TrEMBL record, chains A, B:
The keyword Membrane does not apply. Residues 1-18 have a biased composition (Low complexity). PANTHER family: BETA-ALA-HIS DIPEPTIDASE (PTHR43270), CARNOSINE DIPEPTIDASE 2, ISOFORM A (PTHR43270:SF4). Keywords: Hydrolase, Metal-binding, Protease. Coiled coil: none annotated. The keyword Hydrolase applies. GO terms for molecular function: metal ion binding; peptidase activity. It holds the Pfam family Peptidase_M20. Residues 266-409 form the Peptidase M20 dimerisation domain. Residues 1-33 are annotated as: Disordered. It comes from Caulobacter mirabilis. One of its GO terms (biological process) is proteolysis. This is Peptidase M20.
Length: 519, 519
């Protein structure tokens, strides 16, 4: 209370606070090599499949409609909106393509979709798909997010503007268009396909491991895992990430209880003069977790697991730096920011992105948030928080660290609920599937800059760790504004654009399948 | 950034933080008198108006319908929902009662309603009314908040359960029922009435001073101001507050800008690794404002204006302490709390309530607050905050103190927007109107405990300071859950209840008017 608290207070943190752990400069140690990986040295794929390309060109209208069908089907996993219908739509499309096996796969959450296309080929490719999408933002959309609208963008050309257009329905259905074209012309794919789609990627894929477990023995026999993706920037450049960060997504909640505050419902705001407030507690608990700029986590041990970049990561980082620096202005414009975190240089942000975890507040909610002034003392407050984990960090470890830190800070009354959590994933650039993808990019004159990893997350650990398979997420084409209003994918680029349209994206997928078969 | 911030950080507050001001023990200085004010010593009002009482009893059904008409008319000022219609309804009722003057009074906000009933009487009473109500809570209502439902409460008897039932439409319309009854039987009131109703009380009465200004010269000629109120607790006890605290209601907002963070829209959460976050900034700004328990404001000078309780306030406080202590269990049960703020004793909370300001967070909003996990980095965050001010604190003073403190703490990027603000108000217990009210309570055997002031707020300064008139808020009857789900007013109390029903509440108002005329 008053006196006690004041005595304890250096302000918002308790007296027994350990000295904060400064965020380690990323990379943790100086690089031991200045060598830069160069994807241009990978031989370009030489195969030509003109009859298939011609088929693709002749069927563009139909192929575009396939994408529009997919984005028009709502599938918001967080709100269980259209999920079942989308799963059935995906299965129906696999059946129509001639997959010998298809199945809606039950899980403890939203169902998965399995498909197997046996072509008696030597090699087998696993295709990862997600069929769910993010919720819709209440404002900011200039079209109906589920209408499958075609919009003429003055800079980009004709785009498909819809939730899921680029994350991830667009490229996924474009890949299936490519498969359909090969089958129509050649009657046979050069590789066998296993598809295992999930409907909970945007929830952090809590049950994808269950789906994997059901097919683990068969999936392990494959040669690699592929995730179709619009990899091109507006300038046509491509980055290929060799890994992803993990994610730990939690809710921090405070409520009235034995430590004070109303337990069952909000009360009149004037009662604050004699009551404790769970909302103030949440504000202090959050503030105790980072430095005042919100950019360094103060939880002891948070940064300890970070290992120095290995040789391959160093070579890849050296390789992407020039491109990263060249793109700085475009990146600032895309994110609408005046500066980088804490005034960092562009080079520093590359290393932060690759080698350090991020710590973010996704949402805050308590009490009255409507128009005007309503005077209440809320009985609870919630913060949604996520950590993007680098290799060696685990959800279990973070839960332990955060719980004991909050307890030590006097925030035992703050409840931690994990909504999702999985570790990072990594693939070596020397894997045949990776070389096939890079070779195919080189054929199209779009030599990729190969990233050690993405700052974003995906449940790829199930492939790289559980199945021990290399994973490639790649493709020609461009889209953006995923998780934001007016998400889009380019369909017919403006003349002179360096971005591939839908047809060329499909041809890339065709060549990739052959390149893998021949690798 | 990183290093800098860490160096500066004792954690969540900047290095140049002044030592926190401990909340002064309330009262600031020891009382100089142990004398206790005793309302029982005020002579009970002796008048009898049996014909009027009989009329009231005979017209209960009709009178109840008047209350239901009022609560059925939505009038949510914060959402401009039904406000105009309610203003017209109030004016129409005054016309119907025979007020010679009635008017809808335009203001810069919602309109006021004026009415003057000239009875050629010596004394004139100003009746303050509010015709607006709070927004509806999304959950927790067991009836339609605007249906005017009559509910049988096992403890209380028949209650009117609706938004506005007790705050404030119920008692206001009950008062008008009393006026109608006198006019019907006696053809004449013992006093002249001036009514000036507002539709923005729940917004902090931003424009009531405009309304007052329009009638100031006439209002100043009155003998006092009366606000009808259900003053009884479930046990039948009455407290009469001689004043109210002021209120300063603000929004604290952080957005992306030159100091970093996305400026125009939310971005993907993974970008936190290279971007600043306005949400973390708000958490730290809030935490910098209080001790970790959220119970002591750290803004320098915040508590300085508090003056020691004067002799009258001391006598009143001494008078109410026994009742306050006796009610502790009931109060805890009503608020659903396990303890008082910071573990205070019941006696300490009385003094906190009376003599210290409160500092409350009414709401928090940022980013994604729906079901499940959505990973975004929001471009803005908002906190709704209110201070309940004691005498000598002013909104202008608080704005200056908070702005310079936040600037000194390194939070110049935190925007402060005042939604409402007005000072405290005080009336002396020696005023004739006050004595008339207490005398009337004594007639009904319900001797009030007279509070120095309420912890809540109302714009009474316009009466006590601008018009220099004594103000009384009083009445028999009971209601509760204002600003919360299932708000109610008792209509027909259970047999044996100590609570007055609607009929007795109306008789009290009748006697009060005569008592004032004879005072």
């Amino acid at each position: 209370m008053g006196a006690g608290a004041v005595a304890a207070a250096g302000g918002a943190r308790a007296a027994d606070t350990p000295a904060p752990t400064p965020r380690p400069k990323a990379p943790k140690t100086p690089f031991s090599t200045t060598e830069a990986y160069d994807a241009a040295k990978v031989p370009a794929y030489k195969g030509q499949h003109k009859d298939v390309y011609a088929y693709i060109d002749a069927h563009q209208a139909e192929h575009l409609e396939n994408l529009r069908r997919w984005v028009r089907q709502r599938s918001i996993s967080a709100q269980n909106d259209g999920v079942q219908e989308m799963a059935r739509l995906v299965e129906a499309d696999l059946k129509a393509l001639g997959f010998q096996e298809t199945a809606i796969v039950p899980s403890s959450g939203h169902p998965g979709v399995w498909g197997y296309l046996d072509q008696k080929a030597k090699k087998t490719l696993v295709v990862y798909m997600m069929y769910d999408v993010q919720p819709i933002e209440p404002t900011g959309w200039s079209v109906d997010a589920f209408a499958g609208e075609l919009v003429d963008d003055p800079k980009l050309g004709q785009v498909l503007m819809a939730r899921g257009a680029t994350n991830q329905k667009g490229p996924e259905r474009a890949f299936l268009n490519a498969v359909a074209s090969i089958l129509a012309v050649k009657k046979k794919l050069p590789v066998n396909l296993m598809i295992l789609a999930e409907g909970e990627e945007e929830l952090g894929s809590p049950h994808y491991p269950e789906l994997i477990a059901k097919y683990e023995s068969r999936l392990k026999t494959a040669d690699g895992v592929f995730f179709p993706m619009n990899s091109q920037t507006p300038a046509g450049q491509v980055t290929m990430p060799m890994g992803v960060k993990g994610i730990w997504y939690i809710e921090l909640e405070t409520r009235g209880g034995p430590q004070g505050g109303p337990k069952e419902a909000e009360v009149h705001g004037s009662h604050k003069s004699i009551l404790d407030s769970p909302v103030w507690r949440l504000a202090h608990a959050l503030a105790s977790l980072t430095t005042p700029d919100g950019n360094t986590c103060l939880v002891p041990g948070f940064y300890d697991p970070i290992r120095p970049p290995n040789l391959e990561e160093q070579r890849l980082a050296n390789g992407v730096l020039p491109q990263w620096l060249a793109d700085e202005a475009a990146r600032k414009d895309a994110l609408k920011v005046d500066r980088w975190m804490g005034g960092m240089t562009a080079e520093e942000t590359l290393y932060e992105n690759l080698f350090n975890p991020s710590f973010n507040i996704d949402g805050l909610a308590s009490g009255y948030t409507g128009v005007g002034a309503k005077t209440i003392l809320p009985h609870k407050a919630v913060a949604k928080v996520d950590v993007r984990m680098v290799p060696n960090q685990t959800p279990a470890q973070l839960m332990k660290q955060f719980r004991s830190y909050l307890d030590a800070q006097g925030f035992a009354d703050v409840k931690i609920t994990q909504l999702s959590g999985y570790p990072a994933a990594q693939t070596t650039v020397e894997a045949p599937l990776v070389k096939a993808a890079i070779g195919t990019f080189n054929k199209y004159g779009v030599t990729p800059t190969v990233l050690p990893r993405l700052a974003g997350s995906a449940p790829y650990y199930v492939f790289t760790d559980t199945l021990k398979l290399p994973l490639v997420t790649a493709g020609l084409g461009h889209g953006s504004r995923q998780h934001a209003p007016d998400e889009y994918m380019v369909i017919r680029p403006k003349p002179g654009s360096k971005v591939a349209g839908l047809a060329e994206a499909e041809k890339f997928y065709v060549d990739l399948l052959y390149a893998l078969a021949e690798a």
